[in-house]
């Protein structure tokens, strides 16, 4: 028993026609003005300064990825808690393994420095957090 495909084709055609009609209507009824400041950027009442092509530090990306990962894992743990009675001891041990993997991921993030926001400087064989006041010289730090 096969189902007819004409309803799917009719729906697809209807969507294409509707999108085309909306685009044509928007083009015909839209405003057309070209003042001097029409193309200027205006964000939240603040006139922008500088280039919009500035790079975002990788720390923001790492924190965003870590947040998404650990937030999503919290959803799984909440679901496990809701089904705790049905899963029994087998579910408990699986959840312990899951939380152990999460803990390992958190330790990994900590070890690579994804949770440290201070800039790092190379000090011999290990990296240490940078000075809080970079304008101090080494002689000032030693008290001379």
Quick overview:
The protein has 144 residues and is mainly alpha-helical. The chain has a domain at 58-133: Methane Monooxygenase Hydroxylase, Chain G, domain 1 (Up-down Bundle), CATH 1.20.58.
Task: Walk me through what this model shows.
The chain is mainly α and 144 residues long. The chain has a domain of 76 residues: NADH:ubiquinone/plastoquinone oxidoreductase, chain 3 (Methane Monooxygenase Hydroxylase, Chain G, domain 1). The protein is 57% helix and 6% strand. It contains 4 helices and 2 strands. The protein has a two-stranded antiparallel sheet with strand order 1-2. Helix 2 packs antiparallel against helix 3. 0% of the residues are buried.
How are helices and strands ordered from N to C? Answer: HHHEEH
Q: Determine Rg (CA atoms, Å).
A: 29 Å
CATH topology of the domain at 58-133: Methane Monooxygenase Hydroxylase, Chain G, domain 1
Beta strand count: 2
Class from secondary-structure proportions: mainly alpha
What's the CATH superfamily of the domain at 58-133, by name?
NADH:ubiquinone/plastoquinone oxidoreductase, chain 3
Which strand-content bin applies to the residues?
5-15%
Describe the global form: flat
Mind telling me the CATH class of the domain at 58-133?
Mainly Alpha
Separation, N- and C-terminal Cα atoms = 92 Å
Q: Specify the number of helices.
A: 4
Low-confidence segments, ≥5 residues, pLDDT <50?
none
CATH architectural label of the domain at 58-133: Up-down Bundle
Reading side by side through the largest sheet, how are the strands ordered? 1-2
Largest sheet: 2 strands, antiparallel
Q: Helical content, roughly? A: 55-70%
Mean pLDDT: 79
